[in-house]
Amino acid sequence: MPTPRRRLFIAHLYPDLLNLYADRGNIQTLRRRCEWRGIEVEVAAVSLTDELQLGDYHLVLLGGGSDREQEIVAEALRRRRAEWRAAVNDGLPVLAVCGGYQLLGSYYQLRDGRQVEGLGLLDLVTQAGPTRLIGNIAIDSPEAGRIVGFENHSGRTRHHHQPLGRVIAGHGNNGEDGWEGVRYLNVFGTYIHGPLLPKNPRLADLLLHTALRYAGLPDHLDPLDDRLEWAAHEAFVARRIES
Ligand code: GLN
User: Fold this and answer.
1) pLDDT of 226 above 80
2) Which terminus of the chain is more solvent-facing, meaning fewer CB atoms within 10 Å of its CB: N or C?
C-alpha cells in the first residue's frame, strides 16, 4: 500500500521576539528531516499581530527571549489561555525553549520582584536568581537519550511534573535539583538552546513522531544518514562537556 500524502503544519511563534541562540535552527531541522522523508511541511511564522489559531497546527514552537521580550509575548499568550489549555489537553505537541518554557508555567518572577504571569498550563514557577546559569549542558532523557546543547538563563524553574531528563553536566532547571526541562502530555519544555534539534536527531524525530500521530497520519520515519548530526553531538560531548 502506498503511504498516504503526509503534510505537517508547524507554527513558529513570535520568531521576531523569541529567537535567542539560534532557536531558529530547530525549525530548519524539523523541516529538513521531513523533506528528506517525503513529508510535506508548512511552517507559519506567527507574529504578535497575527490571529493565532492553535487548531490549525500539528506542532507549535516557542523559543527563548530576553526578559523584556518575554513580557510582551506573555501578554499575547495569556489572551488565549483557554484555547491553549484545550489544545494542550487534546495533545497538541509543543516545543518550548527557555523563555518559552518559562511562559508555560504560572509565572516568571523578575529580580525586582515583579511577576510576569504565564499561560499556567503547567504547575511550574520560575524565579530569576542572582546569577545567570550559563554554559554547555548534557542531559539523559528516558525518551530521547543523551541531549546536548547550551543554556543561558537567570530563571530557576521548579515543578512537580516529569522532567525532560537528568542533568549530566550543566545546570538545568535550577542548578540544584539535577533535573532539566519538563514533559507533560505532548509538551516538551527545556532550557537547551544551541540550537537544540540539529545536534539531537533522536529528539527531533520524537517530536516528528508525536506531531504525525497528533495529525492522525502514519508516524513511521525512514532512517536518515545522521552521521554528521551524531558527529556534531559527539564532538560537543567530547570537547565541551568532558573537558
Ligand atoms: N529571560 C529568561 C531568563 O533569563 C529566559 C532567557 C532565555 O530565553 N535564554 O531566565
Assistant:
1) yes
2) N
